[in-house]
Amino acid sequence: MTADWRPAADLLVAGLRSVFGNRLRSVVAYGPHIEEHGDAPLSCLALVTTVTVGDLETCARMSHGWRRERIATPLLLPEDEFRRSLDAFPLEYGEILRAHELIFGANPFDGITIDRGDLRRACETQIKSHLVHLREGFIEAGGTPRAISELLTASAPAFGALLRNVARLNGSDARDRGAATRDGARLAQLPDAIVTDILSLERPAAVSTTDAAKLFPEYLAAVEQLARFIDGWRA
Fold first, then answer.
1. Enclosing domain of residue 132
2. Are the beta carbons of 202 and 156 closer than 8 angstroms?
3. What is the pLDDT of residues 121-163, one digit of tens each?
4. Cα(91)–Cα(130) distance, rounded to whole angstroms?
C-alpha cells in the first residue's frame, strides 16, 4: 500500500478501535488502491468477535468522515461468519486474498484456503452472467455507438476480474493485478489484442467512443470462449 494511503488506513483503524475495542481482531486493506490505482477509495475488511446494532449505529455516524477521507465503508464481519462464508463468496474473498495489506491485528488469511470446487461453480455463474448481461446490454443500446461504448467501458473491470478468477482457479499465485489478469486470458486462450483493448477501457480516455463500440463482436466472442473454457474445466 502506498504511503499516501497510510493516514487514511490509520484513521479507519482508530475509528474501529474506538467502537470495538479489543473485539477488533483484524483490519486488511485490499482493492485497486494497493495495486497502484491510487484514485480508488480505501477498501478494507474488518473482522471482529461480535457486532451489535449499537456498533453499526456508531459506525454509521463515522461514515460521512470516512467518505470525506475517501475511505470506503469497511466490509465488517464477525470472525466466525467470515470463515463460514468462504464457500459462499469464493471469488470475492479470493480477490482479497490475492492482494492485500494487513494494517491491524493478526492476518485473517493464515491457514485459509478456498475450495476449488466452490471457486469453479462461482466462476461459471459469474462468467455466464457476464455473457447474458453483455448480450442484453447490446440490445438495449439500440445500435447507438455511445451506448455500446458505455456498456463495454462499464463491463471492463468485471471482465478483468473474470480473468483473474480463472487464473486463481488454475492455481496462479500472481499477486500483481496485471499478471494475474494475463494468466487467466492465456489459460482460456483468449486473443491478446481484444484482451488488451477491453482492459484499456478501465482508463476511459484511452479509446474513443466509436472505436470502443467496434470492439463489441470480438469482445462477445472472447466472453463466449471464456464460458466454453469454464464448461470444460477439470481439476
1. 116-231
2. yes
3. 999 999 999 999 999 999 999 999 999 999 999 999 999 999 9
4. 14
Give me 30's grid cell. Answer: 485490499
Length in residues, the chain? 235
Q: What is the pLDDT of residues 30-46, one digit of tens each?
A: 987 777 655 778 999 99
Residue 123 and residue 70 share a domain: no
What is the C-alpha to C-alpha distance for residues 63 and 71, in angstroms, rounded to an integer? 9
Residue showing cell 469464493: 90
Residue at which a domain ends, from 105, 133, 168:
105
User: Which cell goes with 187?
Assistant: 489459460
DSSP string for residues in 23-84: GEEEEEEESGGGGT-TTSPBEEEEEES---HHHHHHHHHHHHHHHHTTBPPPEEEEHHHHHH
Contact status, residue 207 vs residue 180, Cβ threshold 8 Å: no
